[in-house]
Design goal:
The complex is a heterodimer. Chain A is an all-alpha fold. Chain A has one domain (25-52, 81-289): Orthogonal Bundle (MetI-like fold). In chain A, 73% of the residues lie in helices and 0% in strands. In chain B, a hairpin with a 2-residue loop joins strand 9 and strand 10 (243-249). The chains are: A mainly alpha, B alpha/beta.
Chain lengths: 300, 316
């Protein structure tokens, strides 16, 4: 759960002690966000307590029970090496969530800083930064990450690194667009007119006002990162055996689709569930950061 | 016509503006929004700037504190003398120290002049924290006193409220309180009541006047409302097409307007001392295209008294 709310702290400088509480309240008030929150919390719990929850070690092979159908012994059956699929999925949650959250956060921080600077500076600096962003955006994400992985070598860290290298462009675009909008608002002029230095205006007056769309993008970005990790692992460049991730399971299970359908369907369901949950959750903070929808303070 | 008259107020002027020129570069060309404006503002007086939309009143006000958005705007020349310093040439730190501290501004749009994500207390206290190094209890007490002085009830609770929880009139009260917070020498109010309804306008102007008088601050009141000028201002500058065309005492301008544009302005507003049946006389034509100002006096195409000479040279 903290993982889900944490991005707010990174993007919006803490306004007050009860800011986080207000945020949480708003998430809880929105029905879809609540569903998302429950699923995300559940996924985080699974990730944390995987060793306790999993009935078997994800690495123990039972070559006599290869591709076993679901049974009371193996709830979701076994994989091609006779490992318990449920255990592998539970442990895979760790990898997938970690990759999703970390790479999305890194790209958000990098992207927002660049976008903020670019939009605030304007002129030639802005034009240059935006052309670079455009250049990055020309690549289809998967191709870019595959190319990066090919250069850096396979492995989880490299997937995250290449996702961050690619993902910042979207955040930069969003942040810059919002800055262009916000910096023209009269309160920015009013802030200048009382002598507040530009840097302070940027992080204190503009940054919090561009946060809502960025938060939504972070939440959706986590979903995308999970999907990309799955895709890259599916293609064999991400997680390396014997480590489990949802994408990796999907990839291996896919080959046995007719013999053991659950082998690929179950990880597929996990991926969809996680992405949907993060997308739902994205709507909550958006409302929470919109002060007109925020219910605290004196209202009459 | 009388631009030079303004320049004779003498050396005691608090703020003296000479030949201020501001240009805006747009795709179609360069607009000279403020064209060699000169005037003086004396300590404790209320000086009104009147003129129609786009005549350069707001640009003049913003230029005084170098707040013109650059690009597209640019202050190309002139001098703004305040306390032996030319505000147009001091460095960034120095001008920032003057903004909000010695010269405060109150804007037109109370609905959007406050940052929606912060409580009132956070914003109201910002100039004080910045310029007077106040903090903690002192700052809180000062903010409460400020809100009290602009007649906002329950100031202590109100400091916790967000801007959207206030009406437009209340927000403008807050903006006035914020403008007054550092006891400035000069307050520039850029059409402070335009966005508010009429009953609130009068209240706020009274408040503004009372506040500047209490602090013996000078007020530069930008408006297009001649009624406001008559009631509140000591002196008036009438602007047209980026120039000050007439400058006079507020009473004189009603009794004996001298520039044809001022005469036109006065005849185009209803007056209580005239019969209701009397028709208002609009100023014919449109304000000139700022990209292509008429040669000579910019007002001549609309001027009932224009003679051949008007097309050739601007009056001095």
């Amino acid at each position: 759960m903290t993982d889900a709310v944490h991005p707010v702290a990174v993007i919006a400088p803490p306004r007050s002690r009860n800011g986080a509480a207000a945020l949480l309240r708003a998430v809880v008030r929105n029905r879809l966000a609540r569903v998302g929150l429950v699923i995300v919390v559940a996924l985080c719990a699974i990730a944390i307590f995987a060793p306790v929850l999993a009935p078997y070690s994800p690495y123990d092979q039972d070559l006599y029970r290869v591709l076993a159908p679901p049974s009371t012994v193996h709830w979701l059956g076994t994989d091609n090496l006779g490992r318990d699929l449920l255990s592998r999925l539970l442990f895979g949650t760790r990898v997938s969530l970690f990759v999703g959250v970390v790479s999305s956060l890194i790209s958000a921080v990098v992207g927002v800083v660049i976008g903020l600077f670019s939009g605030f500076k304007g002129g030639a600096v802005d034009a240059l930064i935006m052309r670079v962003t455009d250049a990055f955006l020309c690549f289809p994400p998967l191709i870019f990450i595959l190319a990066m992985s090919a250069v850096l070598g396979p492995g989880l860290q490299n997937v995250m690194l290449s996702f961050a290298l690619f993902g910042w462009t979207i955040f930069a675009r969003i942040a810059r667009g919002q800055v262009l909008l916000v910096r023209e608002l009269p309160f920015v002029e009013a802030a200048r007119s009382v002598g507040i230095p530009p840097m302070r205006i940027m992080y204190r007056h503009i940054l919090p006002n561009i946060a809502p769309p960025v938060l939504v993008a972070i939440s959706i970005g986590i979903g995308t990162a999970i999907l990309i990790e799955s895709g890259v692992s599916f293609l064999g460049l991400g997680v390396q055996p014997p480590l489990a991730s949802w994408g990796k399971e999907l990839r291996v299970g896919f080959t046995y689709l007719s013999a053991a359908p659950l082998f690929s369907i179950a990880p597929g369901v996990m991926i969809s569930l996680a992405i949907t949950a993060f997308n739902f959750l994205g709507d909550g903070p958006r409302d929470a950061l919109d002060p007109r929808l925020r219910g605290d303070g004196v209202r009459r | 016509m009388n631009a030079s008259l303004a320049g004779k107020a003498g050396p005691q002027a608090l703020l003296s503006v000479r030949d201020l020129t501001v240009e805006f570069a747009i795709d179609a060309g360069v607009i000279t929004a403020v064209n060699g404006v000169s005037f003086d503002l004396n300590a404790g007086e209320i000086l009104a700037m009147v003129g129609e939309s786009g005549c350069g009143k707001s640009a003049t006000a913003l230029a005084l504190l170098r707040l013109i958005a650059d690009p597209p705007g640019r202050i190309v020349g002139g001098e703004v003398r305040f306390r032996d310093r030319d505000l147009l040439s001091v460095d960034e730190t120095e001008i920032r120290d003057i903004r909000g501290n010695r010269i405060a501004m109150i804007f037109q749009e109370p609905m959007t002049s406050l940052n929606p994500v912060y409580t009132l207390g956070r914003q109201l206290g910002e100039p004080l924290a910045l310029h007077k190094n106040l903090g903690g209890e002192t700052l809180l007490a000062k903010c409460i006193a400020l809100l009290e002085s602009v007649s906002i009830p329950e100031p202590q609770q109100r400091l916790q409220s967000y801007p959207h929880q206030f009406s437009g009139g209340m927000r403008q009260r807050v903006m006035i309180a914020m403008g007054m917070s550092c006891d400035p020498d000069i307050v520039i109010a850029d059409e402070p009541t335009t966005a508010l309804d009429v009953t609130i306008q009068a209240q706020l102007l009274e408040l503004l006047k009372a506040q500047v008088e209490k602090r013996r601050a000078a007020l530069l009141l930008i408006t297009h409302n001649l009624g406001v000028v008559a009631r509140y201002a000591d002196r008036v500058n009438v602007m047209y097409a980026g120039r000050i065309v007439e400058s006079a005492g507020a009473d004189d301008i009603y009794a004996a307007p001298r520039h044809p544009y001022t005469i036109g302005l006065l005849r185009s507003v209803p007056r209580l001392d005239r019969p209701v049946s009397e028709k208002l006389a609009p100023i014919e034509g449109q304000p000139p295209n700022p990209l292509d100002l008429p040669k000579g006096c910019p007002f001549h195409p609309r001027c009932p008294f224009a003679i051949d000479k008007c097309c050739a040279e601007a009056p001095r």
